[in-house]
Design a protein that fits this description.
Layout lengths: L1 H19 L3 H6 L12 H14 L6 E2 L3 H7 L6 H13 L4 E2 L1 H30 L6 E3 H12 L8 H12 L6 E3 H13 L1
Antiparallel strand pairs: 1-2, 3-4
Helix pairs in contact: 3-4, 3-6, 7-8
Protein name: EF-hand domain-containing protein
Pfam families: EF-hand_7
GO molecular function: calcium ion binding
């Protein structure tokens, strides 16, 4: 019994000093570039703070064992295996809890990575629709895509009219074309409505 705690004491001391020097060590353990600052919006921070308060231990730190619930409470939906990887790498270093800043950094960096992969998918779809590669989707390009996806007129209105209606909703400048940002706005709008 006692020999185990003795072999652990140097690690505990090392972890304690890492805690004093800040979170760069913890970041590198979690595969986050220690020099990078993680983007955190105000709502990200608010959600992280609520999640942190819900699960924090007596020392005012977030227990690593509660990471999966913590991510859920912070409304960051990352696969459990991804979170478990972080839990395992922390446990391997003897880290049982973390300060708020580290918890928020972990949550927001995973959120950002997820956002980036979504962005990459959307970019690929946009490039596919933008057949002449001019950086815009025209009504004709959209119409061809609508026809390919649904067949002409299966949606109860001809593909041409549907494409024009979609372009009309998006095209705020009246150019008859849609930029990538407008395309993303439309998708966000249709998802949230």
């Amino acid at each position: 019994g006692s020999s185990k705690s003795e072999s652990f004491s140097p690690l505990r001391t090392a972890m304690h000093s890492a805690r004093q020097t800040g979170s760069s060590q913890l970041k590198s353990l979690l595969g986050i570039d220690p020099s990078s600052s993680v983007e955190m919006t105000e709502s990200d921070l608010r959600q992280c703070m609520e999640a942190f308060r819900r699960f924090e231990n007596k020392q005012g730190r977030f227990p690593v064992a509660k990471l999966i619930e913590g991510f859920e409470a912070a409304q960051t939906f990352v696969s459990e295996t991804v979170i478990e990887e972080s839990m395992n790498s922390l446990a391997a270093q003897g880290v049982e809890s973390m300060e708020f800043y580290d918890f928020a950094t972990l949550v927001c960096s995973k959120k950002l990575r997820k956002r980036r992969s979504t962005h990459a998918c959307l970019k690929a779809i946009f490039r596919h629709l933008d057949q002449d590669s001019d950086g815009f989707i025209s009504a004709e390009e959209l119409q061809m895509s609508v026809e390919a996806l649904m067949g002409d007129g299966q949606a109860g209105e001809p593909a041409e009219r549907l494409a024009e209606r979609m372009i009309g909703q998006l095209d705020t400048s009246g150019s008859g074309k849609v930029s990538y940002d407008q395309f993303v706005c439309m998708l966000n709008h249709s998802i949230s409505s």
